[in-house]
């Protein structure tokens, strides 16, 4: 099957690159707060941002918001097709709707006409809680088929009116159910897939659950855009999403190699690791930084690192690519290491 490409502003879904997105957690009607959060999200490395559009006031706010940010925005609309029309008119880059819940066929035709005229993709966003009752009854013992059939129904509504600028998602909380559903969607449809676990949970639990599900699918080549849904800040969602991509080598960026510490560790390695992690937060350069607690996990086990440190009781060894370049006193360890890191960040030939 030839995979279809979909353009969201300058982003090309289906091009092989995986895009990371999140959703604002401000009231969209509060323009200043929403713009500020979008800017923070973009600084964290997001590729696009989704906004809730629950009413006309929120839709009106989009006119002001799009003028103050540069990242592509997605309008999340339910039930009222007029909100989708207003979001498109305001300059939104993509809309998320379920065609089956916005009323009559004429309502859908109006949205499709506006989206087509402005080259705006529509994401069909099915989830386990939105499956129609008739499909739940028909597939009560097979939730995968219920989800996939729900997607098929929504896709058909768009295809039947000549619209195929489509992105698909079918989210669930169950990792196993999600994996089976997306594997079937990938086989059945040529459209780009938005992947994520719905209502994944608090930061720690949600990070684990999302990383397992999204990581497995991406490793199989399934997924064009992802969201890590957490009961936490959208910045956390972006950071976890970016780390998933980096772990699969689907995106470059800083990586920290640090040992888990044990009884041999003589320094506060966790403190140093946190300081380095904070410094690298918005760095784009593909650096590999090693922070090791002893000689056992020293230069030899982190020989691929651009910069590393192996700590002992009174001194530490600074190394690059497995070769020791300097022996330093532990009293100056953090300052010297951060100075070396700073030089590396701004080094042009890396």
From TrEMBL:
Cofactor needs: [4Fe-4S] cluster
Free-text cofactor note: Binds 1 [4Fe-4S] cluster.
Pfam family, one: GcpE
Reaction catalysed by this enzyme: (2E)-4-hydroxy-3-methylbut-2-enyl diphosphate + oxidized [flavodoxin] + H2O + 2 H(+) = 2-C-methyl-D-erythritol 2,4-cyclic diphosphate + reduced [flavodoxin]
Domain IspG TIM-barrel residue range list: 5-241
The EC number(s) this enzyme carries: 1.17.7.3
Name this protein carries in UniProt: 4-hydroxy-3-methylbut-2-en-1-yl diphosphate synthase (flavodoxin)
Organism: Thermodesulfobium narugense DSM 14796
